[in-house]
Amino acid sequence: MFPSWLLKNNTRLEQLYLSNNSFIGALQLQDHPYPNMTDLDISNNNMNGHIPKDICLIFPNLETLRMAKNGFTGCIPSCLGNISSLEILDLSNNQLSTIKLEQPTTIWFLKLSNNNLGGQLLTSVFNSSSLAFLYLSGNNFWGQISDFPLYGWEIWKVLDLSNNQFSGMLPRWFINSTRLRAIDLSKNHFKGSIDFCKLDQLDYLDLSENNLSGNIPSCFSPQKITHVHLSKNRLSGPLTYGFYNSSSLVTMDLRDNSFTGSIPNWIGNLSSLSVLLLRDNHFDGELPVQLCLLEELSILDVSQNQLSGPLPSCLGNLTFKESSRKALVDLGFVLISIEKAYYEIMGPPLVDSMYTLASNLWVNFTEEAIEFTTKNMYYGYKGKVLSYMSGIDLSNNNFIGAIPPEFGNLSEIRSLNLSHNNLTGSIPATFSNLKQIESLDVSYNNLNGVIPPQLTEITTLEVFSVAHNNLSGKTPERKYQFGTFDESCYEGNPFLCGPPLQNNCSEEVVPSQPVPNDEQGDDAFIDMEFFYISFGVCYTIVVMTIAAVLYINPYWRRRWLYFIEDCIDTCYYFVVASFRKFSNFRR
Question: How far is CA 564 from the centre of its chain?
Fold first, then answer.
């Protein structure tokens, strides 16, 4: 139960923090007001029921109210928008179903994410003159937001409307914003093109899972942007010079679109790039060697394209090490210097503590999440797990040539998928150096030779497949992780033998060595004496058959004689004519 006894006879209480406990039941408050209470935090408990309608009367001077991650139901009291001192309101991750919030006059941080709120969004929320951080993700809001008559958007820093039912064209009212740091409109039904060219302060952009189309404009290249998610749209055309100057870019996710052309060489200029996801597009040409300049690269996915040519051996020079830059960890919500943070957003001079709060608010928003295929499954990675993840997926393309032995230098990599290409040659023995790898797939290629027995030294391997190649010899010894791989990992290689396959290596037919010519006898591959006798007999039979036919059939005999006569006449005239020409030539 909520410890209401803390409030009883304690009217001077100013701040009450009860988050991350196990309080249950309804929020029961005292009947008399607490005018000194400024901060109330009961988030991350198991409380339920309705938010008391008289909460505004009991706490008339609240500055911060956090009730997130509980089970509150019903409506959001409209009076919360009228508390003249309220600046931060976080009611996210509850089961609230109705919003009656009047136009908030002082709230600059409003988070209502992951509730059951729905209907058309109130324009009064958007038109707040003080609002800078707005989180409405994970609800059922619908309608168009492109035509809202906004009056205070110039100071906005974060706009998160993801995972709702919004539709229509992308909003145009924030195109010229000079302060927006993050835009997340993913998982909606927005359509149209991306026409952002002046969002110079943008750090985070997520427009994935919409119906956007057209090209990425060349003018869109924010220098400070770190994370871009445009996956699962209908974007098309080549990557001309969009993101050309975005040297701070850490994540570029363009999966599941219709981009064409080659991967641009300027990709090597993105020195901070750690995650590059280009899966399921129509890119062609060779993999640019400029990728080898990306020293921070840890996840590369260009699968399901039309790329061709050899694999760049220089990729083996990259470390693919773990990196926390691609996964900003949630450090929590630091409640210090609220007033100073508010004034920081509004414009007046700063002090050091204000930047601390603003940074933590920002980190709270940007816990990065990506999707990557490994172990034959599509996984989502975020937070600390993402920081440890590294992998390369080049599958389902038209790559040719041998697998570079330098790939064995990727000692930190956890997933390598080269399947469904036209690779030839043998499996490099250097793969035994992949000490951290968990998934290795080279199936559906034209690889030959034996499977390096050194691969059994890899103790971290969970998924392994060399199926459907031209490999031969014995399967690796069934020890350590290789004792867990079944027949499907090796199928489609008719010359492989040994467990878990049905082919027994002891029954394999070994071809005999050829015998030198001077030692050939009865065991020679062809008996030459028998060959000569057979040839003579066959020749005699053919001649005698022709003679018998001519003797028995008068018609064919006459035709044969006429043919012989014509041949003689032809030869005679040819010899006479040639002799005359030769005589005339000598004269």
Answer: 81
The reported pLDDT for the residue numbered 534 is 79
DSSP state of 487: G
- Enter the tokens of residue 569: 């006449």
Are residues 333 and 362 in contact, defined by beta-carbon separation less than 8 angstroms? no
pLDDT at 514: 41
- Please, are residues 220 and 240 in contact by the beta-carbon 8 Å criterion? no
The residue ranges of every structural domain in the chain are 264-328+366-511, 329-364, 513-560
Q: CA distances (Å), 417 to each of 258, 261, 303, 459, in order?
A: 22, 23, 9, 18
- Tell me whether strands 189-192 and 165-169 are parallel, antiparallel or unpaired: parallel
**Cis-peptide into 500, omega within 30 deg:** yes
What's the pLDDT at 324? 61
* Residue 539 structure tokens: 């020749």
What pLDDT score does 62 carry? 94
Task: Tell me how many degrees the CA angle 196-197-200 measures, rounded to the nearest 5.
Answer: 105
Calculate the alpha carbon distances from 415 to 117, 291, 418, 441 in Å.
40, 18, 10, 9
- What backbone torsions phi and psi does residue 258 show, to the nearest 5 degrees? -130, 35
Q: Determine phi and psi for 492, rounding to 5 degrees.
A: 80, 15
With b for 16 or more beta-carbon neighbours within 10 A and e for fewer, the 489-524 pattern comes to bbbebeebbbebbebeeeeeeeeeeeeeeeeeeeee
CB atoms within 10 A of CB 47: 25
pLDDT reading at 380 higher than 90: no
Provide the residue type at 24 as one letter: I
d(CA 342, CA 361): 12
d(CA 409, CA 402): 16
C-beta separation of 139 from 112 below 8 A: yes
Which option is the CATH number for 264-328+366-511: 3.40.50.300, 3.80.10.10, 1.10.10.10, 3.30.750.24? Answer: 3.80.10.10
For the residues 44-64, what does the mean pLDDT come to?
Answer: 92
